[in-house]
């Protein structure tokens, strides 16, 4: 009897080893362990045996069954691996396939502009800081010298979030940040001076017309050190606007303006010349201008802001600037309406977007 089982085992083992694919292996399994399989049939004969024989034979058959099942399993994974290796060897992807411009996506002008701005400031040694879109009253207003009730808050009306029962008080009130200047505060509070950072991000105000959308993007810059002065501010921003617009002699004007967090504060305008009825960036041949275009706000950081961030204004000082990224993109790339940036119109994106393979950069200029 044991000899029979031994012979059967040898035979089945041979069949399993001989199964060259998963289908053949499954046939062997059905033949041996299936409802009418050879081992199953032998199991059925146990019922007619006397108890002693049934016990020894039953044990031997069960052991055989387990062994065969394990062998099938092992052969199955070996065959699966072999099959996969075969597929990996044959199914190679031809990455040399040429790009198809008609199905290629476009880079949004906002992303393109952020990259251009980053490249210019990176060359000047700035690093990038970040801050949250959901701010609190303190970082967005109070620390920036807009105390509660200050009329300048009115110009930056925004979206307020429901009060958080865990954080009470006027300064904890949560809102969507109205400008990236809040990142100045976070950066100064969390890091040791000197500071030389830029930051980008979404900002929010409750406005909507041709030049205002409830969500837009800003870029902020902050430089704080022991001997930083207004001359640095002017040099930095003049170099920046000329590099960004790619016009070496672009006329730049600093016009006094008010922001609570700077003193003195200024607005930067760039000169334009009139050509064919429209304003063109850059002055006339003789250096004169026919108009000015406002592009960004700046100023020397207010001593109160420095103190709010734990800095001694007698030791540290510096400048900050902020600009709308959409505006920078509109002026450089001739996009007339701000609202179209967010309409997700593919025709707009195909027209104003940039091909990933032919993006302009600061070295190539507007035409890549
Ligand atoms: N945060 C100002 C605004 O949104 C811009 C600004 C930034 C002005 C930094 C001066 C200095 O209008």
- Low-pLDDT runs: none
Strand residue percentage: 15-25%
The count of strands amounts to 10
- For this structure, what is the CATH homologous superfamily of the largest domain? Bira Bifunctional Protein, Domain 2
Instruction: Please tell me the overall pLDDT.
Output: 91
Query: What are the distinct ligands in this entry?
Result: phenylalanine
CATH topology of the largest domain: BirA Bifunctional Protein, domain 2
Derived from helix and strand composition plus strand pairing, the structural class reads alpha+beta
Distance between the termini: 86 Å
How much helix, percentage-wise, in residues? 25-40%
Main sheet?
Answer: 8 strands, mixed
Secondary-structure map:
Blueprint: H1 2-18, H2 22-33, H3 38-45, H4 51-90, H5 109-123, E1 127-128, E2 134-136, H6 137-140, E3 174-176, H7 181-190, E4 195-204, E5 215-225, H8 230-245, E6 252-257, E7 262-275, E8 278-281, E9 291-301, H9 303-308, E10 317-324, H10 325-333, H11 346-352
Parallel strand pairs: 1-4
Antiparallel strand pairs: 2-3, 4-5, 5-10, 6-7, 7-8, 7-9, 9-10
Task: Characterize the structure shown.
It is a single chain. The protein has 368 residues and is an alpha+beta fold. It folds into two domains: 2-90; 108-352, Bira Bifunctional Protein, Domain 2 (BirA Bifunctional Protein, domain 2), CATH 3.30.930.10. 39% of the residues lie in helices and 20% in strands. It is built from eleven helices and ten strands. It has helices spanning 2-18, 22-33, 38-45, 51-90, 109-123, 137-140, 181-190, 230-245, 303-308, 325-333, 346-352, and strands at 127-128, 134-136, 174-176, 195-204, 215-225, 252-257, 262-275, 278-281, 291-301, 317-324. Strands 1, 4, 5, 6, 7, 8, 9 and 10 form an eight-stranded mixed sheet that branches. A two-stranded antiparallel ribbon has the order 2-3. The mean pLDDT is 91.
């Amino acid at each position: 009897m044991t000899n029979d089982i031994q012979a059967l085992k040898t035979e089945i083992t041979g069949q399993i080893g001989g199964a060259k694919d998963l289908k053949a292996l499954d046939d062997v399994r059905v033949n041996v362990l299936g409802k009418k399989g050879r081992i199953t049939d032998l199991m059925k004969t146990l019922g007619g045996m006397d108890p002693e024989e049934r016990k020894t034979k039953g044990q031997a058959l069960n052991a055989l069954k387990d062994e065969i099942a394990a062998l099938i399993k092992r052969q199955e994974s070996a065959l699966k691996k072999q099959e996969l290796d075969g597929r990996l060897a044959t199914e190679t992807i031809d990455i040399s396939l040429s790009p198809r411009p008609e199905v290629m996506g476009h880079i949004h002008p906002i992303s393109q502009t952020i990259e251009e701005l980053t490249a210019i400031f990176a060359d000047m040694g700035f690093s990038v800081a970040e801050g949250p879109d959901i701010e609190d009253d303190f970082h967005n207003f109070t620390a920036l010298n807009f105390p509660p009730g200050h009329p300048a808050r009115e110009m930056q009306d925004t979206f307020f979030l429901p009060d958080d029962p865990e954080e009470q008080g006027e300064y904890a009130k949560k809102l969507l940040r109205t400008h990236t200047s809040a990142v100045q505060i976070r950066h100064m509070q969390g890091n040791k001076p000197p500071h030389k950072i830029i930051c980008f991000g979404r900002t929010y105000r409750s406005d909507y017309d041709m030049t205002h959308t409830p969500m837009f993007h800003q870029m902020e810059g902050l430089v704080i050190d022991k001997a930083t002065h207004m001359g640095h501010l002017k040099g930095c921003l003049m170099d920046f606007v000329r590099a960004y617009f790619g016009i070496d002699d672009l006329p730049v004007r600093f016009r006094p303006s008010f922001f609570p967090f700077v003193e003195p504060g200024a607005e930067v305008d760039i000169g334009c010349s009139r050509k064919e009825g429209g304003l063109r960036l850059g002055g006339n041949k003789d250096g004169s201008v026919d108009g000015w275009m406002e592009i960004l706000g700046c100023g020397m950081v207010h001593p109160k802001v420095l103190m709010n961030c734990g800095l001694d204004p007698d030791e540290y000082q510096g400048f900050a600037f902020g600009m709308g990224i959409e505006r920078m993109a509109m002026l450089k790339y001739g996009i007339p309406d701000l609202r179209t940036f967010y309409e997700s119109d593919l025709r707009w994106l195909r027209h104003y977007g940039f091909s990933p393979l032919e993006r302009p950069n600061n070295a190539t200029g507007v035409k890549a």
